[in-house]
Design brief:
10-stranded mixed beta sheet, 650 residues, flat, 19% helix, 6-stranded mixed beta sheet
Length: 650
């Protein structure tokens, strides 16, 4: 509508400026009228926002995508020809057939995504990148030219793509000789002094003789096995090894023979790592009297053969194991995690022993105290003794605070028969988990967190009678739960570990954090951050972890070969944990020989595509594409154009 005003505006401006004072020359009037007309017209354009629109016809041809894998594994040769060259020789005839039948063909190279790094192939990421570049609704089909070795954690999502994926099956016969290790299988955690099994899945192509398979631990040869491949191509080799020292131990398995012309040496070695921890949890029980309490506690603890339980008696400050004298310092072994003190009235700790015990608890050691209160332990137990030395007899009940601890949730306090107890007074920091059914409701189970350690005090004796009423299982479970709870360092409620201790170059590294709150339930309210450091302590990554139903996790890619440490911390709670993992010089791509035809067939089947054997490529035919004629309206907003704004300013 505003365009209809152009002529009237120009006429009015001409009439208005036809006669000027002073009079102007014809040239001056022309310039003046032109500028004034342009100014008024520009103002009208800005006021009315005119849009020029017109219709255009265009033809839409169906599009076919060629996804060509260019990861490092495509450079590996098969019969003196790389896998990439083998597939590239197939593409021209398919491209010509499609173009001759009115299809648009677009080609993308991919590895870890479209035009991504070549150290791994990730099909899911590639399809996601494709969806961001193209309208999948106009794509007729996708041709996938790949060896089928993908690093995707799962490929189920491709069935939702709704675009058929066609794959090609090359005609090739593997005539070369190759030995290799497909994978290692072992528990990521081993116990010192225990036998640990390490299983290697080995194979031989074009080779029917004997080969040696060797296990190395921290670079030192441990043992070798001779394997005969005359009858079976795929075999398993089992190694049994005993680790002596705690820590992260590097392992590797090597397969070798006397053949000279092996196709691929990169898959002859497979690395790994095992986290070795102490075989036994050290628990030392110190008492002034060997009685039924000590006997039943000892029997309950020994139900777990991974515990090293030692019973010591105290006589006037001296310790004895049987008839042999024991130094108090000898109690504190490297694997010691829990000390149990049972006092029937004559247990004595001198100042040196108390100092050593306090230091042990401070450094995350556990302490369980039963019986008569010891004034010298008041700081640790968060209690003080009363003026009453006599023992009394009554039943107990658990407080509401006890529900925060799983240890006390598996049985009923009413099942515990009357027990003999002492009166004690709790300090401010004490957490009362149980009380006696007396007039004062005096404390029966007192919990205290002392520095990094846990302390539980039960000022009673003769708890062993409980099992006579309920059977050994309930009493034994209670003692077992208490021991496990106190023996585990406080940091065990905030633990991060990598899903594997050792990774091939190019593998995705997953680190998971399990965090519990004070109720021993999964804590999903944290905001943990992760920092990763290389062997020279340089920080290579910092990120926040994401939570998914049970744990926090972080996925890291493309780390170069090195030995790494990581730190996970939550600023609000102040919790922190550390760990280690390795990235090997060996990469995943160099191990991917041949074509993973079963996976390629699965991809085609899941998406509604097909597999084309190489021999049928030349005869492959497609129907002529239906070209859609579409009429679209194009609109040009004049007021937005930079020329309009410039004209107005001028």
């Amino acid at each position: 509508m505003s365009l209809l005003l152009i002529v009237p505006v120009i006429v009015l401006v001409y009439l208005y400026y036809k006669n000027t004072v002073p009079s102007l020359s014809k040239k001056g009037k022309f310039v003046l009228i032109t500028l004034r007309s342009a100014a008024f017209l520009t103002l009208l354009i800005l006021l009315f926002n005119p849009i020029i629109g017109f219709w255009q016809n265009r033809s839409l041809r169906p599009e076919v995508i060629f996804l060509v894998d260019n990861s490092y594994s495509m450079d590996l040769t098969i019969n003196e020809k790389s896998k990439g060259e083998l597939l590239n020789s197939i593409t021209p005839s398919l491209r010509n057939e499609l173009k001759n039948n009115n299809y648009n063909v677009t080609k993308y190279y991919f590895a870890n995504g479209i035009e991504g790094t070549r150290n791994s192939s990730n099909l899911s990421r590639t399809l996601q990148d494709l969806a961001e570049r193209k309208n999948l609704g106009v794509i007729d089909r996708i041709f996938l030219f790949s060896d089928g070795w993908f690093s995707d954690e799962q490929l189920q999502s491709i069935s939702r793509l709704r675009v058929p994926i066609w794959t090609v099956q090359p005609n090739y016969i593997e005539e070369s000789i190759d030995l290799g290790i497909n994978r290692l299988r072992y528990s990521p955690t081993a116990y010192a002094e225990d036998e640990t099994e390490i299983i290697a899945d080995v194979f031989a192509d074009g080779f029917q003789e004997r080969a040696d398979v060797s296990l190395f631990v921290d670079g030192i040869l441990q043992r070798s096995h001779s394997i005969d491949f005359s009858t079976e191509r795929n075999q398993q080799v089992s190694f049994l090894h005993i680790f002596n020292n705690p820590g992260l131990s590097k392992i590797s398995v090597l397969i070798e023979s006397e053949i000279e012309h092996e196709t691929n040496l990169a898959n002859n070695t497979y690395p790994g790592a095992i986290r070795v921890i102490d075989k036994r949890t050290g628990i030392y029980l110190i008492t002034d009297k060997l009685n039924w309490d000590v006997g039943f506690i000892n029997r309950a603890l020994r139900r777990d053969d991974r515990r090293d339980v030692q019973i010591l008696t105290s006589d006037r400050g001296n310790l004895y194991s049987g008839k042999d004298a024991v130094s108090f310092d000898d109690v504190f072994q490297d694997h010691l995690q829990l000390i149990i003190l049972v006092n029937y009235g004559s247990l004595i700790l001198n100042s040196d022993q108390l100092t050593r015990l306090r230091r042990f608890v401070t450094n995350s050691g556990g302490l369980l105290v039963m019986g008569k209160p010891l004034d010298e332990l008041a700081e640790l137990t968060a209690t003080s003794s009363s003026n009453l030395d006599n023992r009394f007899r009554n039943t107990i009940f658990f407080t509401s605070e006890s529900t925060n601890y799983r240890t006390f949730s598996n049985f009923r306090a009413a099942s515990i028969p009357p027990i003999e107890y002492y009166y004690v007074s709790p300090q401010v920091e004490a957490i009362i988990l149980g009380r006696f059914n007396n007039e004062e409701n005096s404390p029966a189970v007192i919990y205290n967190v002392y520095q990094q350690g846990r302390v539980l005090y039960m000022p009673f004796v003769n708890l062993w009678r409980w099992q006579l009423h309920e059977g050994d299982s309930t009493y034994g479970t209670f003692i077992d739960n208490i021991s496990s709870w106190l023996a585990n360092p406080s940091g065990m409620d905030f633990v991060a570990q990598s899903d594997k201790n050792s990774y091939l170059k190019g593998e995705v590294i997953t680190i998971k954090l399990t965090a519990y709150d004070e109720t021993m339930s999964i804590d999903s309210s944290l905001h943990p951050s992760i920092k990763i450091f290389s062997s020279d302590q340089s920080q290579v990554l910092i990120d926040y972890m994401t939570f998914d139903s049970q744990a926090y996790s972080s996925k890291i890619e493309a780390l170069p070969p090195d030995s790494y440490t990581f730190n996970v911390s939550d600023e609000a709670s102040g919790k922190t944990t550390n760990g280690k993992f390795l990235v090997s010089e060996l990469d995943t791509e160099s191990r991917n020989r041949g074509f993973n035809l079963p996976l390629l067939a699965y991809i085609s089947r899941q998406t509604g595509g097909s597999i084309i054997p190489e021999g049928e490529v030349e005869s492959f035919r497609v129907s002529i594409a239906t070209v859609l004629n579409e009429k679209i309206r194009l609109e040009f907003p004049i007021y937005r154009h930079w020329l309009t704004i410039s004209l107005f300013l001028i």
